[in-house]
Amino acid sequence: MIPSLPRPAWVRVLNGIYLALFLAFLFLPLLTVAAFAFNDAPYPAPPWHGFTLDWFLGDESSGRVGLFHDSELLDSILTSALVAGWVTALSVVIGTTNAFLMERARFPGKQALSMLMLVPLVIPGVILGISILALASRMAEFADAAFGVDIEFLRPGLPLVVAGQFSYIAAIATLTISARLKRFDRTLEEAAFSLGASRGAVLWHITLPYLRPAMFGSAVIAFLMSFENFNTTLMLVGADTPLTILMYGRMREGATPVLNAVSLFLMLASAVLALSLMRRGGRKDS
Amino acid sequence: MMETGPLWRRRLFLALLLAPALLWLSLLILLPHVDLALVSFRERVAPREYITSLAQYRTFFTEPLYWKVFVRTALLSAVATALTFLVAFPVSWTIAKIAKGRRAALLFMVCLIPFWVSETVRTLGWMILLRESGVLPSLLVKLGLASAPPELLYHDATILVGLVYTSLLFMVVPLVNSLESLDNALIEAAYDLGASGFTVLRKIVIPHAAPGITSGCIVVFMLTLGNYLTPNLLGGTSSQWFTEQIYNQFITRFNWEQGAAFGFLLLGLSTFMVWLGLKVSGQRFADVMRRA
Questions:
Q1: Residue ranges in chain B modelled with pLDDT below 70
Q2: Contact (CB, 8 A) for A152 and A144
Q3: Would you call A126 and B247 a contact, using CB atoms and an 8 Å cutoff?
Q4: Cα angle vertex B228, ends B225, B232, to 5°?
Q5: Spatial distance between the Cα atoms of B249 and A267, rounded to a whole number of angstroms
Q6: Which pTM does this prediction carry?
Q7: Confidence check: pLDDT of A149 > 90
Q8: How high is the ipTM of this complex?
Q9: Of A115, A134, A228, which is closest to B119 when you measure between CB atoms?
């Protein structure tokens, strides 16, 4: 089983077969999606009809609307990026303040609060979505009845989508950044203080730079999780549709290979994000 | 940085740090769930007129469709969790104990790929592979294994394939972590004392990896139970997943009272399973979440 013990040949062969099957299982769906983005046929299905870039470049005149001319898809990518940008910024900021709160401050009820911060991670996304939807609409109705004002951002739409995704992504950012702050060597701060640095200067020049890898890492994760989120978004979405919701709608209708094209784009974007995270992780000691 | 300085300044710092955390947890977690609970306990007797009642929960237990879908979702989620464990264990073992250095790191990274690619994309891949006009059915016909292309979508097995694929990462990471901390000398000692491979697995490996196994199973079960996209697209109209019932009540029928009750039933089951997993393995919630 472990290298220092004898492994019979049949065990090694079985293990090899298992690993081959496992890798096929992991890669087959993704390779299929990528390949059919280039198939010269109106549906992403075999047989292979030859190579084409229509599903990227095609426009109305060719009868095949490719990714770069499909304004609905392009708009939804922008919508998703906008939502993810907000969620990322909010999560990293709140994650950092939470890290200082949990690692540096002492107050009654801290234990309970630290448990409560983990709760969003065990609530199914659909339920996060409907609970926020219910509270927001109650607040909107109340504002309408009491003051006669219509509060737009409490109706299903992008602000609620941001709130819903943030509600659990903030917990992940808090965990990541707290873990790094816990390992921080406090003597560095004390040394700076005794050399006459102000609180602000110590925070800016010593502590935050030390936290930067964790902040960057949780920013990448937050962006990705927001961009990919489906469950919570589905319940809170309004007129502007993020990419996952639009793709879901089209997949139910039986879409053209333009969805494969946008999927390939997503895979490449994820790969770039993953590589940037790994390169930073390799350079810094995280 | 905070323990020093005048009292008023420490108080100010504390207040400034507490405010965002409390706003987040109260406005987006606590209050919404209290509100959802209130909604689930009311019944509409006339337009804009509600009374407090257990009617929504009563409907769930008296309408066979609802509780059958609930039980089905729970059972299939349990099966998916078990399958994920069976698929993930050998590869985790290979990463932690057999492969060396770069190969182990590479294999580990490969297991993370499904996480980096959106669930929509993964599901699209399975649809193109499995549907009647898809890649695998036409391959089966070409190989002479089937006379007409079989429809491989819209079965329970298809849903399970999609769920296992989506969940793998959440099982592999805790398993690898817990297996790596197992001292090889223990396994060697057991062998030297004449234990068979199976005995070593049962008496040494599994007990040592138990915390990782529990973490993985809790997270996978929870995510599977709450999944919407994979059962819906791979199972089609026959998927009968409980999250779809919640969506139907809330969004399609606009029956928020019923939808809220369904939401709480799902949350209750999910919480119960987390609690059970912790109880059985004697772990603390915070440790499990950090490990995952």
A1: 1-4, 284, 286-292
A2: no
A3: yes
A4: 120
A5: 34
A6: 0.90
A7: no
A8: 0.88
A9: A228
